[in-house]
Amino acid sequence: MRRPPVARRPSPVAPPAARPGRALAPFARVREQLRTELEQGRFAPGARMPSEAELVARFGVARMTVHRALRELQAAGLVERIQGVGTFAATGPKLASTLTIRDLHDEIVGRGHRHHAIVHLQRAEAAPRAVAARLALAEGAIAFHSLIVHHDNELPLQCEDRWVNPARAPGYLGVDFTRTTPTHYLLEVAPAWEANYTVEAATASAREARLLGLERSAPCLIVTRRTVSRGMPVTLARLVHPGTRYLLQGQFRP
After folding, report:
1. Residue 224 confidence (pLDDT) above 60
2. How far apart are the C-alpha atoms of 98 and 111, rounded to whole Å?
3. What domain range is 54 assigned to?
4. What is the pLDDT of residues 125-160, one digit of tens each?
5. Taking the mean position of all CA atoms in its chain, how far away is CA 89?
6. 38, 64, 89: which is the final residue of a domain?
7. Residues 72 and 109 in one domain
8. Dihedrals phi, psi of 65, to nearest 5 degrees
9. What predicted TM-score, i.e. pTM, was given to this entire model?
């Protein structure tokens, strides 16, 4: 005699998050809408996006909801956020530079040494043609120019010849660079969005060699660095280091 079939238990109900067609949580709805707009090119790379307050009004959600959505977009590499400045569409996939913009003061103090700077020049003057072109200035336009020698204890370690776009750092000439560094100041007033480097082994100019206490034939490590903040050039710097006194270090991250 055959036994009657055993009734099967109903399959467990899928948790709410797994149900197809289920409405997204508010933060996910904001995140996905912004993701779509970014992918469709509504915000150009580097463009400022709506503020959190504007997104709160647009989506009718709490500020914490908007904050979480933006945080997740940032983690996905789709936006970049600068505290106190705003949120910007990412400029695309990036390869971390082998050179990090570091404040020389921090490097020296980190070794337990004393940093001090001697300012030899800090003034407004007409930018040379090549400098004006790299700072996106008209030929003959006025730019800010500084020449500073940084010391590790009493040893000259870097001769910094820097040009600055006045539109990006209008207060540059009023800064006391014996108390702070141009790098530290500029990263505060015009956070670097991108930077371009060239690095070469060469000899210093006659003036640079004199300021660094070198023979003219002494080998040097020369870094030329141009930084851009939100599409506008900020500064062009020539950084000359005595080859026997300086080690350039960095890291690589894919």
Report:
1. yes
2. 21
3. 16-89
4. 999 999 999 999 998 899 999 999 999 888 898 999
5. 14
6. 89
7. no
8. -65, -45
9. 0.59
